[in-house]
């Protein structure tokens, strides 16, 4: 990149720092954008600018939104009394793509982690306790990762909500769709066996 | 993406259409940008905006530039009388990363292709002939892909420049650095054998 003009070099460097991109893919992207300025660069700029100005965090659930309260929280059909607790917005989007859950969410913004010194007050756990305490919640579904940190967080939340008497559930563990036993780790097979059901 | 707000959805759709990105990596990118608005989104917006406004094609060589004539063409130290002919700007950048070539470039903007109905007048071949005809050029180095279209283009250019008497060379073909014979195609091995040299 010795001789690419400075502005272009700076853009490539910016791009190369984004997740999933490196210097090579950033160069390719920037060239593409420059060579298709009207079809690609300008619409992208406009879309980025709109999002940069409007994106905010939903004050109720922590989802990313273009309004103070997100579209899911304002949708009365989704006020089913079920709250699905997820680690981050990417997980919320993944749940939505699944299309099965019809209630509301609560985005923690991470998991408890002794290693990274992330405690309950760094996450949106107090807000969750308040939200459940305010009533109208029938069930809290813990959709957290099946990792040590994820499960520690799940147990902590279950404890913190214990006094409210709300029903607390967690995603089932088992064999994923299309999963071949041969390629599954032993932990998953064990969990699926313990949770076996009538056929 | 059912429930991501519309502006954000639109941005993800824009991103997903860029080369090397798909819906999944676009979602990841957009989330990253929104969650790091000040460190990532705003600098990227500013850099994109600058390039969108300033990027143009060098009128002499076809390189991408932020000025009417690019930094390589205006650098008098590079007026060595050597012109390296490349297919596109990505190839020019690749040559520059190599750091060996110290002359100037000529970017064709593609290769001749009967299949895609790309003829000489669709490329910057007439400009190359003019440039060589204007004098001051000692050698034209054809750095085109070792593909049928690349080599057809090379032969066409050599013919078109025949009357100028300028020296015309092409990149050597052979075993790439770090290349193991076992993994090389037969064509490359044959070319490397025919072009063998004293050791």
Automatic annotation (TrEMBL), chains A, B:
Q: Which Pfam families would you find in this protein's record? A: RecR_C, RecR_HhH, RecR_ZnF, Toprim_4
Question: Which keywords does UniProt give here?
Answer: DNA damage, DNA recombination, DNA repair, Metal-binding, Zinc, Zinc-finger
| Domain Toprim: from-to ranges | 81-176
CDD domains tied to this protein? TOPRIM_recR (cd01025)
Matching InterPro entries: DNA_Rcmb_RecR, Rcmb_RecR, Rcmb_RecR_Znf, TOPRIM_dom, TOPRIM_RecR
Which stretches does the record call C4-type zinc fingers?
Answer: 58-73
Q: Which SMART domains match?
A: TOPRIM
Q: Which domain of life is it from?
A: Bacteria
Database matches in NCBIfam families: recR
What family is this? Belongs to the RecR family.
Function summary: May play a role in DNA repair. It seems to be involved in an RecBC-independent recombinational process of DNA repair. It may act with RecF and RecO.
What is this protein's record name?
Recombination protein RecR
Q: Please give the organism.
A: Roseinatronobacter alkalisoli
Q: What is the phylogenetic placement of the source species in the record? A: Bacteria, Pseudomonadati, Pseudomonadota, Alphaproteobacteria, Rhodobacterales
């Amino acid at each position: 990149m010795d001789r690419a003009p400075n502005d272009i070099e700076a853009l490539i460097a910016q791009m190369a720092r984004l997740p999933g991109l490196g210097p090579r893919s950033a160069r390719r992207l920037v060239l593409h954008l420059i060579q298709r300025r009207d079809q690609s660069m300008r619409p992208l700029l406009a879309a980025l600018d709109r999002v940069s100005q409007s994106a905010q965090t939903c004050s109720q659930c922590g989802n990313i939104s273009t309004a103070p309260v997100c579209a899911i929280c304002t949708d009365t059909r989704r006020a089913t009394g079920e709250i699905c607790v997820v680690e981050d917005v990417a997980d919320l989007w993944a749940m939505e793509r699944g299309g099965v859950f019809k209630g509301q969410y609560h985005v923690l913004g991470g998991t408890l982690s002794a290693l990274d010194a992330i405690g309950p007050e760094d996450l949106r756990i107090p807000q969750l306790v308040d939200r459940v305490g305010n009533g109208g919640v029938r069930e809290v579904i813990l959709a957290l990762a099946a990792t040590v940190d994820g499960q520690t967080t799940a147990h902590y939340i279950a404890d913190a909500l214990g006094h409210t008497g709300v029903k607390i559930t967690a995603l089932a563990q088992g064999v994923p769709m299309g999963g071949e036993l041969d390629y599954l780790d032993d932990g998953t097979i064990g969990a699926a066996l313990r949770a076996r059901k009538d056929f």
